[in-house]
Design brief:
It comes from Bradyrhizobium barranii subsp. barranii. By secondary structure, the chain is an alpha/beta fold.
């Protein structure tokens, strides 16, 4: 998340409001959690962490024995209230960094990283709501940090999550999301399955469309803030539909990554 999915390289729509100097540091792997068949969360204990905002990301740097280095960005999935840092990584075909992180990394290893990075795509409970989160694939990662922060802060801020995935099996954090929605009357959760549907599926089938957005995005009078994260085409399509529905373009914040996704 973040940066999640695809090439795992995301770019915020706007330039960061500010970018403090950050240095490379190391973190020890405390746990590795399988989220789906293609996605794992890496739980890190940073050597020195000053905290982050929900929605930010870090850069990870791998160094080979011959000195060759590769860097990728990954969204932070954990809320600022937690001391451990959770990064969610999706397998990318021929991805040299994601392949190492998913196949070779072990508990107890150390990772080199720097962050937090990104000052545009952030939200905290002090900014209020309502908020409407729209995720495509592993674009859920930075949005999950926002939802986890919202839960920890016990702020009754109205929120909506519209999550597009290929199938139920590819929904990341599904059990936690379902529990959140069941226990929180101020949170609305909508899945949109684009490829495979259970026979008894009563939810949305197909891509997120204008009707689904209109039904689950609050009203214009409520002035919701939108956070959209996913593949580039997904983010651009959702943003365009929201503007056509009459929502304020300045209230739409986006984060995007490579060509794959829901």
């Amino acid at each position: 998340m973040a940066i999640p999915g695809g090439s795992n390289v995301m770019t915020a729509t706007d330039a960061p409001l500010q970018q403090p100097s950050i240095a490379w540091q190391t973190g020890r792997v405390q746990a590795i959690v399988a989220e789906t068949s293609r996605v794992k969360s890496i739980i890190l204990q940073p050597a020195n962490w000053s905290g982050h905002w929900p929605g930010q990301h870090v850069d990870i740097r791998l160094t080979a024995d011959d000195g060759y280095q590769a860097e990728r960005s990954y969204s932070i999935a954990s809320p600022p209230e937690e001391k451990l840092l959770a990064l969610t990584v999706e397998r990318v075909e021929d991805g040299e960094v994601s392949s190492y992180l998913l196949d070779e990394l072990r508990v107890g290893d150390t990772l080199e990283f720097r962050g937090p990075i990104g000052w545009h795509f952030i939200w905290s409970q002090t900014r209020g709501g309502p908020i409407c989160l729209v995720a495509g694939g592993t674009g859920i990662t930075p949005l999950m940090a926002m939802l986890r922060h919202r839960t920890r802060s016990l702020a009754p801020i109205p929120a909506s999550l519209i999550y597009s995935a290929r199938s139920l099996a590819e929904i990341v954090y599904r059990d936690e999301l379902d529990t959140m929605a069941r226990d929180d009357r101020d949170l609305r959760l909508v899945y949109a399955l684009t490829r495979e549907h259970p026979g008894d599926w009563n939810g949305h089938r197909g891509r997120v469309n204008a009707a689904l957005l209109a039904e689950n995005s609050f009203t214009r009078e409520q002035n919701p803030t939108f956070f959209i994260c996913g593949p580039t085409g997904f983010v651009e399509g959702i943003s365009s539909m929201l503007v056509k529905l009459g929502f304020d373009p300045l209230a739409i914040r986006t984060e995007r990554f490579g060509p794959t996704g829901a």
